[in-house]
Amino acid sequence: MIGAAIPVAALRTEKSIGVGEFSDLGEFGALCVKMGIGLVQILPVNDTGYQSSPYSALTAFGLHPLYLRIGDISGTSGYEKEIAAMQKKFNSAIRFSHGDILRAKLDLLRKIYKDNAKKISSSSKLKTWIEENQWIKPYAVFRSLKEANNEKSWKEWDEYREIDAEGIAALWNEPSRKEENLFWAWVQQNLDIQFSHAASQLESLGILLEGDLPILMNDDSCDVWAHTEIFDINQSAGAPPDMYSPEGQNWGFPTYNWQAQSQDEYTWWKARLKAAEKYYKAYRIDHVLGFFRIWASRKEDISAAQGRFIPYLPIVPKDFIDLKYDEGRIRWICEPHILTGDVWDALKEGWGGQYSEDELSTAANRVFDQVLFRVGDEELWLFKKWIRGEKDILNLDIHHAAKTFLLKRWTDRILFEHEKDQFFPVWYYKDSNAYISLPKADREELDKLVEKRLTASEKIWEAEGKRLLSMLTVSSPMLPCAEDLGAVPACVPQVLTQLNILGLRVVRWHRDWGAEGQPYIPFEDYPELSVCTPAVHDSSCLREWWDTEADQQAFCSFIGVPSLPRVYNPGSAKTILSRIASAASRFRVFQIQDFLHLSNRWYAADPASERINVPGTTNDFNWTYRLPANISELAKDEDLIRAVSELAAVKPAVKKKPNRSPKK
Questions:
Q1: Closest by alpha carbon to 17, among 78, 112, 103?
Q2: Predicted structure pTM score
Q3: How far is 46 from 475, CA to CA, in rounded Å?
C-alpha cells in the first residue's frame, strides 16, 4: 500500500484559517482516493500550547486548538466577518505563524464562548462528554493555571506546583474557576467532534489513518504535573552521541518510572491508547528504542554526552577490587584531571593574542580559585566537588574561553558515578586522556568489563522491550508501527517481529554499513513487516537530498539506471519514487512534498524551504510547512494525479530465488 505523510497543519483549503484543520482531512482524503493512496500518516496533534514542535505536548490526551475549524462549531453563525478577516491576514503566508494564529483563534473562541456562556454551561452534551473523558478535568485546570501564570512552566508557579487528585478536583469545582475550566472543556469537545468526523470520513473512503504517539512527555505538561509519581523528573531523556550530534541529544523530557507504572498495570498508557484509537487505525511509536532502554542525562547537564542508558548494569566497587584498582587509579579514571598549562593555553587561544600578561594571569587565577583544586603539589587539578554538571560551569563568572575548555574537559573521563557506587562508561571514554594513558593490558581489561556489562544489559533491554511493547499491543486494536532509527540493539528487530510491529526503513540510511562501499539494501530484501520511506520529518526531502547530499552515481547504480540529471526534476522523481514504491515493505510512505515533485508546478525556489524540521535548531521555520496551494488546486493537476496513481500501481518486488542446478 502507498501512503502519504503530511502534518495536519500543512493542509490548505478555502475554509481553513492560516493553518491546516481537522476538517481539511476529508478533502485531502478525497484527493488521496483519486491518486490511489491508501494510508495517511500525520504528526502528533496534541496541544503543545505556543510551542510549534508537535513532540512537545502539554497533554497526552487533549488536542491542539490550532486545528479547530471555528466556522464549523455549532452556534457560531454571526462570526463570519471575524473569520474572513483572520483568513485574509493569515492564508497567503508560505509558512504559517504558529503563535499568532493560535492567539487569534483563542481570542475569537473566547468571544464566542462568552457570547454563548449560558447555553454552553447548561449543555447536557458537554456534561456527558466531560464525564466520558475524565482527563479533561486536570487538563482544563492545568491550562487555566498556565494562562494565569503567563504560560510559565508549572515548576515556576507561585501556587499549585505540587498537586494530587483531590487538589485538582477542588480546583475544577471551585465556583470562581468554573467559567475558565468549562472554556477549555468546550474547546476540547469541539476538537473531538471535528477530528472524529474527519477520521470517519477517511475510513469511509477506505483510507487508513495513522497517528503518531510520542513516547515521552514534555516536562511542562499536564501529565507530569498531575502524575509526577509515574515519571522520573530528575532524569532527562534523549539520544547518545552520533555523527550528526557529537554531544548527543538532550530533549529535556523526563523519563518514565516504569516500576511505578507497573504497579497500577500501566493505566496511564492504556488510557492514552484508548484516546488515540477513537481516531486512528494505526499508530507510529515514536523512538521505540526508549521502551527497551532510554538514554538519560542528569538534570545538572545541558548536553547528553555524559548520559547513560536506563536500565543498565553498572560497574561497582567490587569490580575495582577485582581489577586491583587503588583509590588513586579509581579517581584517575572517574574524574577529569587538568594540567595547569592547559588552562593557560585555553585562555591564550580564546583571546587570540589580544591580551596582557596581567589579564591572562587574572583570568587563569579566577579559574583555579573558583573551579579547581590541586592534587597535592603536582601541576594537576580536579573539579571542585560543588561543580555537579555543565549548568554549574555555564553559570561561572569566568572568561568564555575557560568555560568552553572546562565544558569539554568535564566529559574527559572513563566512568561517571551517576549514583552512589554505581559507575557507567562515558560514551567517548576511549578518547579520554585517562584511557589513553593506561597501559595496553589495563585498557583491554577495562574494555572486557565494559563489554561484559553491555552484553548483560542487552538481555535486560530485550525483556524490558518485550514486556512494555506487549502491553501496548494487547491493549489496543490499532496497528503499531515503530520508529526504530538510531543505534539499534540486536534485540529490537527480534522483539518487533515477535510482536508483529512494523519497523521503519529509511532508504538513504538502510544500508549494509559494515560492508565495503556500504551498499544499499535491495528493495526486495525489505521485510514485509516494515514501512519504507525515502525521507522523514527530521530529514531533508528527497529533492534536497538528491541535489545536495546524495552520492548520485552510487544511488543510480543501486536502482539500476545509468544516470539521472544532477538537478532533481519530475523525471528524476518518477524514476526514484517508482523504485522505492517497489519495496517489499507492507507500506511505502512518502512525504507529500516528494509526491508534489512529480509535477513541475509545485517546486519551491529553494529545496531547503520544503523541509518540515531541522533537528537541533529552534526557530519560526521548524514545523510550519504548508502545502504550496489549496487541496482543490492540487486536485486540478492531472499530471500529478496520474503520476502518483502510477506509483500506487507498482507491485512490491519479490525476492528472487537462487538458481539451482538440475539434479542429474
A1: 103
A2: 0.93
A3: 21
